Amino acid sequence: MFFLIFFFVNLLVVHTHQASDLATQTCDKLTSVKELCKTALGTSTATDMEGFVKASLAATTRVGGDVSEQIAQMLMSEASTAQESLTKCASIYKAAMDELKNSTAALNEKAYADVEVKLTEAMTTSKACEDGFKGASPLTEQNNKFRDYCNLTLDIIKTIKV
């Protein structure tokens, strides 16, 4: 019995170490988004690059969902003076979330070029949302974060396309 427990604990430790090595090695190659990669994906349990891309895409989708939620909250706020721009951003981010969903489907089919196209289309969302405000956007920080996560995922997908 002890041997079985030892075997499974050892297997788990080796698997976790391999995943950690993959995260470190991949993030170190991505100079423009290295720190974001380590922060967002340093604890990923992916043991291959495709799994790492899936983890990054999932993180990007979460960030996009967070922005969508924040927009919805701002729209419900009576104090919001940018209702029209926020409504446009809500529509734009809905389209971005659809693109991320399509990216996930394309990734599952190993259609890496399609993943890149769909991610790039989703990434333009943050700029379109930002440009829709007259004056300062209340979403600048969130739009930048979403763009950075899209860039991170694009950089990672490029490593497996080579």
UniProtKB/TrEMBL annotation:
InterPro entries the UniProt entry points to: Invertase/methylesterase_inhib, Pectinesterase_inhib_dom
Source species taxonomy: Eukaryota, Viridiplantae, Streptophyta, Embryophyta, Tracheophyta
GO biological process: plant-type cell wall modification
Gene Ontology, cellular component aspect: plant-type cell wall
Entry keyword set: Disulfide bond, Signal
Family named by the database record: Belongs to the PMEI family.
Protein name: Pectinesterase inhibitor domain-containing protein
Limits of the Pectinesterase inhibitor domain: 18-156
GO MF, any single term: enzyme inhibitor activity
Signal peptide from the UniProt entry: 1-19
UniProt keyword Transcription regulation present: no
Taxonomy, superkingdom: Eukaryota
